[in-house]
Design brief:
This protein is mostly helical and about 280 residues long. The protein has helices at about 5-30, 35-55, 60-80, 85-105, 115-120, 130-145, 150-155, 160-165, 170-190, 195-210, 215-240, 245-275. α1 runs parallel beside α6, α1 packs antiparallel against α9 (about 170-190) and α6 (about 130-145) packs antiparallel against α9.
Length: about 280
Amino acid sequence: MDILQYTFFQNALVGILLISVVAAIIGTYIVTRRMVFIAGGLTHASFGGLGIGYFAGISPTFSALIFATATALGIELTSRTKRIREDSAIALFWAVGMAVGIIFIFLTPGYTPGLSEFLFGNILTITTTDITLFAIYTLALVLYVTVQYRPILYTAFDTDFARIQGIKTSHINTIMMLFIAIGVVLSIRLIGIMLLMSVLTLPQIIAELYTSRYKTMMILSGSVCLAGSVVGLFMSAIIAVPTGACIVVVLVVLYAIAKAIHALYTRTLRNKSMNIRQ
C-alpha cells in the first residue's frame, strides 16, 4: 500500500475514476444501440491520426482527435444516406485509418517515441494536464446526458419510435458520436488502442446480465469498470505487467463469474418453477 503515496499512482487512480464514468455513459449507449463495433472502429481509425501526427511533427493526440472526429462524422453521414449499412461504414473507416497510420509511421524517419503507449496504454504515465482535460470532457458529457437523458434513452433503445415522438435522433446520434470519438482518443493513451474496446463493452455486457434499465445499467457498469480497473491497477503494480492488459483480464474474469452466477440463478428459478407445477 506504500505505492499510494506516489503522485503517478494517485493520478492513475483519478484517471481510472474518470474512465469508469465515461465508459459507463458512452459504453451503455454503444451496447444498447447494438453498435459495439463502433468502439473498435473509432479506436483503430484514430491510428491514422497518430501516424499523421508523428509524420508531421505535431501532437499525435491532437491529430488523432481530428481524425477520430472526422471518422465519427463520416460514419454517421455515410450510414444516414442508407446507401451503406452502419457496420459496413465502420469497417471501411477502420481499414482506412489503420492503413493510413501504418503508411505514415513507416514514412516517419527515426524512432517514434510513445507509440507503444498509444497501442497498449500506460495509465501510470498520465499527468495532471491529462487528468484536467479528461475531467473537463467528462463534465461536459455528464451535463449533456443529464439534460438530454430521455431523448438519448429513446434513441438508444428504438430510434424509429424516438423519431415518431418528434425527437431529433440525427442530432442525438451525431453529438453522441462526437462524444464517443473524443472519449476514445482521450482514453487511448491510458488504456491503449488494442484494449480500449474491451473497457467500453465488457462492463456493460456484465451489467446487461442483471438489468435492462438504462440508468441502472450505467450505474452498474460504471461500478464494475471502476472495481475491475482498480484491481487491475494494483495487480499490475504487484506483478509488473502492463496495467491495461491486467484491467482487461480482470474484467474478463468478472464477466465469467457474473455469467456463472446468472446461469446458476436462472437454473434455480427454473427448478423452483418446475417443482411448483408438479
